[in-house]
Every structure is written in C-alpha cells, then in structure tokens.
Specification:
This protein is α/β, with parallel strands linked by helices. It has 2 domains: 3-208, NAD(P)-binding Rossmann-like Domain (Rossmann fold); 241-435, NAD(P)-binding Rossmann-like Domain (Rossmann fold), CATH 3.40.50.720. The protein is 37% helix and 12% strand. The protein has 15 helices and 13 strands. The chain has an 8-stranded mixed beta sheet, with helices on both faces. A 5-stranded parallel beta sheet has the order 10-9-11-12-13, covered by helices on one side. Helix 15 (406-412) links the parallel strand 11 and strand 12 (416-418). Helix 5 (106-118) runs parallel beside helix 6 and helix 12 (302-316) crosses helix 13. The protein is elongated, with a radius of gyration of 24 Å.
Length: 436
C-alpha cells in the first residue's frame, strides 16, 4: 500500500518527535482523527508518564492522554531506532538561540540525522519547529538524501509550522488552521491531506519557504507591537499616564487597531526567539532588519526597567534592595499556565539577587524551579497568604494569574511593583502601588 493510500485510509502511522508543548497535543490530534500514532522523546521520564496516562503538561488537563495511553493504536518510546516504524514523522523539537543570538539548529540536525539512519522509501518527514526560511530544504534535505534516497521520489519532505498558544481556551491544536508547504508538489499534497484529517483547516502554500516565513511573520508582528506598547509604557509612565487605560481607550476603535499590552519582558517559545532567526538569515543575504532588531532591544530591556522601578520604589521607602525581602508573583511567562520557557521572571529574580535582595517567588502553577539552559534558581514557591505578604518589603507582580486575589495582595503588601496592570481594579489606598 502506498503512502498516499495509507494517509487517505487513515492507516498511516504518525510519529511525533518531541512530546512537549507542541508534540503532545499534536499526537493527540492525530489519535483523535483515527490514525495509529507513536511518540518519540529523549526523556524516558516523559515516556513513562505517558504510558501511565499521566499528563505532565498541566494546562492541558489531567485526563488529556488517559484515553490515548490505553489504546492499542498508540505507543510512545525513547528508542529512536524505531523511527522507521512511522509512515509520517513530524518534528516538534526546540529551535533556541545561541549565546550570540544566532539560530541553534542542533536539535533539528541531530533529529534529522537520527531519521536518516532508519529512513525508508515511502516515508513523509515534516518539520514543525520555528526556523528561518530554507531550513527544511537546505539543512534537512541534504542529510536525508545522504542515504541515497531521493526527496520527492523515495521520501517526501515538508514544513508545517506549529501555532500552539499554551493556556488559550478558545483555540486548540485541532481548531487552529495549519499551513503546509512541501519540498515539491507531491510532498505538499500528501502533507496537506495528512494534516487536513487531524485539524479543522489545512491551508496549502507554494513551498516550505513560504510556510517558514509566514511563521516568522506571525511572531515578529507580535514582537514589534509589544515593543511599541512597552516603549509607550515607559514614556507615559514618566508623564503620569496609565498605559493600560490608554490601550483600552484606543481599543474602542472598531477598525485599524489591535490591542497589545505591555509587560516585564517577553517569554515563551516563540516571540523572544523567532525574530532573531530572520535577522540572522537577513545578514546572510546582505540585508539588515533594523526595525525588528530595535523591537528586540526594547523588549529585552523591560526586565531591567522593572528592577530599576523596584529599586527606586524601595529607596523612596528608605530601603535598599540589598537585604530587602522581595516576593515575585508569577514564574510562568503568561497567565494560568506552568510554561516558564524564556520567562522574564527569571531575569528579574536573578538581577534582584545580584543587587543583594533576599528574593522569593510564588506561582500556583510552578511549585519548584528546575534546571534550564540559562538558569538554575533552585527555588520553591512560597506560601501566599495575607500574613505572609506582610513579611515582605516589596511584592513584584510579574505574571497576572487568575488564581491571585489581587485585592488581598494590595491590602496587605507594604509595597507593590505592578508590571502587568493587575491592580487596576482594586479599591482602597493605592499610594504603595507602583506601575512598572
């Protein structure tokens, strides 16, 4: 049976490589669509939890993988020698930045090399990780063709960017439209049919490069607009004007404006990273991306802005950061999730510690920190009550989780640095609240 027939009859075994925030819900989407699925991950602990039906991504719900883990049509493994079992392999691996803000494609390269070891005729390989235009064709295709198999004839290669937004309630993997671009027309068609069976709408584009570029544009658009409101926040704050009220006022216009809100910096797996993939590639072809890089500079400066506001506010209270007890509220990069990737909270905590602050954090979604690429805070979330809040010289709001009782926090804190506009609706005295 050909790959095309397997896809059409939903008998193609779909392999998902990387079972994180992107891969795990994608695997479930294909399972719900009736395809046999197999998940691959280098972390044996994840595989063990999956087989037990335990979901390690709490924002997806406790029962997210329970049904799938008990089905005969499902399997998960840390053994990459089994990559040849899948008819379609979808790569959901990290694409971080290096120390000099250059693209780090090591995870894509290592995974592609692993696929090449078991690559067989009739397999479809699709990259989902965000990257610069040309990665699928220029980086993956040569590695796979070293096997002697020819792309477009013996195996098929495509790109379909992930569009996950952890914690979003009005869209999920199955309802977010999916872009699909192939290396060659045949690969594009097969990848399109595969995704169309698992998501509400699959949209074809003319090439993998168009799909790669579209993903970057989506995230750069957000980065630039967030930088705009962050810059306005700094300026308007100096004028004594509330940026959140200004944004809400502008948003009353029914056309020509989309509301973006300021914060303590950028976090997550996309916006802090993806723009630099294009700026790096642009230099390779002799161009600069001044507008995009300026937005990155503005956003990366926001943790310093929050720390400086904290230092000045404590100084006004005749206290120094050094030896002050400071509580940071929220470790996750966005509300109501446990996702801490690239979270500005880590930088804020580290900078306050460097200034001599005795820093603690509370996050109802993140009970303890773990070792990351750049940080290893070795901290645990502390108790948050009216009595405990009173014991801190300063409270810094870094993430506006819905679980927080903002009125209680405002009533009991000695000093609050609010980087999210979380206390706008609280009543009572406000002279101890500082917007940042």
């Amino acid at each position: 049976m050909t790959l095309q027939q397997l896809i059409t009859e939903r008998k193609a075994k779909v392999g998902i490589i990387g079972l994180g925030y992107v891969g795990l819900p994608l695997m479930r989407a294909f399972f719900k669509a009736g395809y046999p699925v197999i998940g691959y991950d280098v972390d044996p602990a994840k595989i063990e939890k999956i087989h037990k039906g335990e979901n390690y991504l709490k924002h997806l719900g406790e029962d997210f993988i329970a049904e799938m883990s008990q089905a005969d049509s499902f399997d998960a493994t840390a053994d990459f020698d089994r990559l040849g079992e899948a008819d379609a392999l979808l790569l959901c691996v990290p694409t971080p930045l290096g120390k000099h803000l250059e693209p780090d494609l090591s995870y894509v390269e290592v995974t592609t090399e692993a696929i090449a070891k078991t690559l067989r005729k009739g397999q479809l390989v699709v990259l989902e990780s965000t990257t610069y235009p040309g990665t699928t064709r220029q980086v993956m295709q040569p590695v796979l063709e070293k096997t002697g198999l020819k792309c477009g004839e013996d195996f098929f290669l495509a790109y379909s960017p992930e569009r996950e937004d952890p914690g979003r309630k009005n869209f999920n993997t199955q309802t977010i439209p999916k872009l699909v671009g192939g290396i060659g027309e045949e690969a594009g068609k097969m990848a399109l049919e595969l995704y169309a069976a698992a998501v509400s709408k699959a949209i074809p584009v003319s090439s993998a490069e168009v799909a790669e570029s579209a993903k970057l544009l989506e995230n750069i658009y957000r980065s630039v607009n967030i930088a705009l409101v962050n810059e306005m926040k700094v300026v308007l704050d100096a004028m004594g004007i509330d940026i959140w009220e200004v944004v809400d006022a502008a948003a009353t216009k029914p056309f020509g404006f989309q509301a973006f809100y300021p914060g303590p910096g950028l976090g997550g797996h996309c916006i802090p990273i993806d723009p630099y993939y294009l700026t790096w590639k642009a230099r390779e072809v002799g161009h600069t991306t001044r507008f995009i890089e300026l937005a990155g500079e503005v956003n990366h400066a926001m943790p310093d802005y929050v720390v400086n506001k904290t230092m000045l506010a404590l100084n006004k209270n005749k206290k120094a950061v050094a030896a002050s007890r400071i509580l940071v509220l929220g470790l996750a990069y966005k509300p109501n999730v446990d996702d801490i990737r690239e979270s500005p909270s880590f930088e804020i905590i580290e900078k306050l510690q460097e200034l001599g602050g005795d820093v603690y954090y509370n996050d109802p979604h993140v009970p303890a920190t773990h070792k990351m690429r750049e940080y290893d805070l070795q901290m645990e979330s502390v108790e948050l009550t009216a009595d405990t809040i009173k014991q801190y010289d300063c409270v810094v709001i870094a993430t506006n989780h819905e679980a927080y009782d903002w009125q209680m926090i405002a009533d009991n804190a000695q000093l609050v640095i609010d980087s999210r506009g979380a206390l706008r609706e609280v009543t009572g005295k406000r002279d101890h609240i500082v917007n940042a």
